[in-house]
Specification:
four-stranded antiparallel sheet, five-stranded antiparallel sheet, alpha+beta
Length: 140
C-alpha cells in the first residue's frame, strides 16, 4: 500500500512542473518588463519552436525560460507562439504579416502594445498585453 502511495507521488510532483503555455508566456513578459526597468536597458522577448523555449535577450545575454520544467529534449509537443504589434487607430491598413514581430522590445517606461497567439495541444488562444504594465489585458 505504501509503495502505491509513494509511486503515485512521483507523478503528482511531475505534474506540478507542467504549466499551460499562456501562464509561462505571461510570466516571461513580466520578467522581461521588470528586467528592462531594473537595468534601464532594452530587453527583448523571443520564442523558438525548435528549442521549445521563450528567450529573454539583454545585450549579448540570452536567457532561456523553459515552457516545461521537465527538461524534455523533444519539441514535438512544443506550442507555437507568434507575436504581433497592436496598431490601433492607425490610418493605415496593415495586414497581419506586416504586424508580425520576431521579438518584442521592452524598455523602461512604456513598451509597445503587442499580442501573442498560442497554438498548443490545448487549443488556440490570443492574448493582448498592456504596454505600460505588461499584464495580459484580454484573452480570446
Amino acid at each position: 500500500m505504501g509503495g502505491l502511495v509513494i509511486g503515485g507521488l512521483g507523478g503528482f510532483f511531475q505534474a506540478g512542473k507542467i504549466h499551460p503555455p499562456d501562464r509561462r508566456l505571461k510570466e516571461a513578459v513580466l520578467k522581461a518588463r521588470a528586467l528592462a526597468e531594473r537595468e534601464s536597458k532594452p530587453v527583448y522577448l523571443s520564442y523558438s519552436t525548435n528549442s521549445g523555449g521563450i528567450f529573454l535577450i539583454e545585450g549579448s545575454k540570452k536567457i532561456k525560460l523553459s515552457l516545461d520544467e521537465r527538461n524534455q529534449t523533444s519539441t514535438d509537443q512544443a506550442p507555437e507562439i507568434t507575436f504581433s504589434a497592436i496598431c490601433e487607430n492607425s490610418p493605415f491598413n496593415y495586414n497581419p504579416e506586416q504586424l508580425r514581430l520576431s521579438k518584442v522590445k521592452f524598455f523602461a517606461g512604456c513598451s509597445p502594445g503587442f499580442s501573442a497567439r498560442i497554438v498548443s495541444a490545448e487549443g488556440e488562444e490570443q492574448i493582448s498585453f498592456d504596454p505600460f504594465s505588461a499584464y495580459a489585458i484580454n484573452k480570446n
